[in-house]
Here is the input.
Amino acid sequence: MNQPTRGAAASGAARDRVRARVLTVVAAIPEGRVTTYGRAGRRLGIGPRQVARILATLTDEESAELPWFRVVAANGVISSTKAGTVGRRQITRLRAEGVAVTARNTVAGFDSVVWEPG
DNA sequence: AAAGTGACTGACA
DNA sequence: GTGTCAGCCACTT
Here is the structure.
């Protein structure tokens, strides 16, 4: 799947470095709180889609270690519901931490539980 | 190599 | 409140 980027070696390295930063920010999200793709991305100087893309490619180990489920869309909606069963698991995990999620896959009282990275 | 796509967002109608 | 548009960056066709 991932071909060894022939030629542009710098691109691959830089990509890993950014990825590591994203994981660090995600790991720093307090329990019972959430943050957004945009906030995390802003903090790192990358676009929100890039954060989403990185979280979508977490390994099993990483997804087990990191609170990736504490990252939601800017309006509090669990965006990963599009990804199938992953969204269901994210909602379950959030509820297990005391974060209320409405029937419309939205974090209840979003403005109160959202966490600003940094 | 150009065009399409995505676990996104903010601005505007 | 919903719908469109443009910007975003990497990956896939």
